[in-house]
Amino acid sequence: MSAEAITDAAQVEPAAPRRAVGTLFVAAILLGSFLLFLVQPMIARMALPRLGGAPAVWNSAMLVYQALLLGGYAYAHWLGRVPVRQQAMIHLAVLALAALWLPIGLMAMQMPADAEPALWVPWLLGASIGPLFFAISAQAPLLQRWFAVASGGRDPYALYAASNVGSFGGLLAYPLLVEPGLALEGQSWLWTGGYVLVFVAVAACALLLPRKAADEPHVHATSPAPSRRRVAHWIALAFVPSGLMLATSSFLTTDIVAVPMLWVLPLGLYLLSFTIAFAARRWLAEILTRFAPVTILMFGGLMIAGSTGSPELNALMALGLLFMVAVALHTHMYDLRPEPDRLTGFYLAMSVGGALGGVFAALIAPLVFDWTYEYPILILAAGLLVPQAFLLPPLAGLWRAGRNGVRLRILLVALLVAAIVWLGLFGPAAQLGDKPLGLLYLAIALVGLFTIGMRLPYMIVLAGALFLFGGYRSLAMSWEGDVRTRSYFGVYTITDLSTQKRLAHGTTLHGVQLEGHDLLLRMPTTYYVPGSGVGRAMMALPALYGPSARVGVVGLGTGTLACYALPGQDWRFYEIDPAVVDLARGPFRFLELCLPKANIVVGDARVRLNEAASSSLDLLALDAFSSDAVPMHLMTREAFATYDRVLAKNGLLLVHISNRFLSLEPVVEAAAKAGGWSAAALTYHPSPDEEIQEAATSDWIALSRSPETIARLKARGGAWRDLQQTPGFTPWTDDYATILPVLRSLNKDLP
Description:
- The chain has helices at residues 3-9, 16-51, 55-79, 84-98, 117-137, 139-150, 159-181, 184-207, 228-256, 264-277, 283-305, 311-335, 343-368, 374-385, 393-398, 402-425, 434-451, 455-480, 518-522, 533-539, 541-545, 578-585, 590-594, 605-611, 637-646, 665-675, 688-692, 707-715, and strands spanning 484-487, 490-496, 500-505, 508-514, 550-554, 570-575, 599-602, 617-622, 647-656, 678-684, 698-704.
- With 751 residues, the chain is of the alpha/beta class.
- Strand 2 (490-496) and strand 3 form a beta hairpin.
């Protein structure tokens, strides 16, 4: 969006002075919001190697960001009590004081081993970036208030559209431009330069404010104060899109498809919805709001069905649903906005709603629910809050029948929905597959179209659709008790078949145990079969290291690798998620049968390995996955240095790189070259007979500082090969890493 377009969106008069005022305020707001959305991913990259990826760490970080954002909005609201000239002086002083924390970055200290993350992480983040984040977060509401004064009382709300254009720009710029182009030190100095520009822009805006209090319109609130009910309505309208944005991200990666960087799309659409909802030109917001109830009704039920037969189409529908809901509810919030003299209170309420939505979806839901139930709950809430109007005048006539007539029609709708749900779940249609369900979907959608414009019957139809197309099935799985479990890392589903038991993390298979006699129960499956890279390495342990080999495994999963353990060996597992430990010790029996006294270290593997003694392992298998990829901080040059320290001089490192979307071989090859490792790769393709026994195609890389160890491993069989070199690939480090060069969709020549 051009500066002229954004300035026009701010409703600045065409006269040169007024246009200059609008352009300056737009630039200041854009830049501040841009910096705000660079902070979180940049600090996450700085903190991950030091703090690890445990949920206690990142939940605490999220609460710190939310608290600072709320604090910034509350501070902007408090400043409204003084004349705008004094506001400018105070805010410039706050910006100058916060500049003492530049260049932005984390304080140089490690988390003590006995520290409580819930207390230590907020202290670290608050002390490192708190003043900077607080000062920048106040920009949007504060500068809008100043614009109303400097422009002679013009409506400032459209400037919030410019604010979210800046946020959207920061969101896209970090993974696509900043992270691939700059190391963390360069990113820090880039942000510092941007902060200086923000200070200059805010100072320039302050010069446009009237010098005398008598010349200040809208200094003190003169319009009627909003009622508590109106404030609660604002909070609810902000709560649902914020929660739905996070719930959509979780739902897509849990039930549809685990694609790297997918989280960018829901957040980007969420930000763009503000740009449309708060724009001066209202036609697009009004059109999308009018058809939002149709979208909720048509897409809501289909999304809860969670079909992975067409993941791209399902992902598009989920994103479309989020966007329509966010635009409609934010537009309704804009329609209910107060006069500019109450502007900061309005944005404070919006911030409270957004924070509560984030806390509900990211912190509370994983504790309370065993599936992403927050998704249908928020869809229902959206249906309850979205503005409704009859699609066609004749439809309005159907509901003009007096109180008793309306009640009769509502009862008829409820009976029709109940009949459709019964046919789909318990009647003949339940036994005939997808085609009858498609007809039932059309039927319930048709009934729903007649109810749009009438809240209660519309909600009856929406609830029936959600229950029929996935809600009942999900509730049934929850009632079974041991089929599904959830943690902050996602949803784990156990499928118990007559011949096998399977564990899936979202849509990614993480382990299979065959059912039957003792030999079958102990048989390694999937990526860990004897012919795989890790299987061959495990069977070579006695020849390489004798009968007392010391083995470490990063990532427990179902505990499959434990069935390679032999008497006299010392095994140690590193697992970040306690829920996975419970699964491996409960429904799955690999540990029970093969290594009942397994030593399991709970926590981030890199942090825990830093605590381990040097040369304490002979073999380390890196099998940790976040969704469908190895966590980035476990693949940097510094991480490989940690593995080198823990391994014996002739120790062996096995890295699992099987992945649908990322080619991680260049990452490992670059780390091996930089660290002086010898390496070999094995891509294992099982035979048809082995596939029947649940063997899966897998990619493993073996590394050792001892070329002799690699040679001895290769001599024991298997199609080991040298790693493919990728000219120009920059090794991942704690200071620099980007997944763009290893995305298969963008780089067709990757191995």
